[in-house]
Design a protein that fits this description.
Blueprint lengths: L1 H38 L5 H39 L1
Length: 84
């Protein structure tokens, strides 16, 4: 019986060590994450608005470009179908 008790006690000690390592790892992870968030230089509202406007303008320009190409292709194919 002492061998069985020793094995059971050994497993509980091993589980306890693994639990401590996991807890320490999580604590270190969140501490490092918090430190990294402090390093971030967040944009000002003015910069955010300016960058958002640039993105919307780019989307508008590309949308018009794709619409123009689509209209051109549609008219070309329509004219080809009318001839044949």
């Amino acid at each position: 019986m002492p061998d069985i008790e020793a094995k059971v006690k050994g497993k509980s000690v091993a589980k306890n060590k693994a639990g401590k390592k996991r807890t320490e790892g999580l604590k270190r992870y969140f501490t490092e994450t918090k430190a990294e968030f402090k390093k971030i230089i967040w944009p000002t509202p003015k910069e955010t608005f300016k960058q958002t406007a640039i993105v919307f303008l780019a989307i508008l320009i590309f949308g018009v470009f794709i619409w123009a190409l689509d209209s051109l292709a549609m008219s070309v194919f329509y004219n080809l179908l009318q001839k044949y």
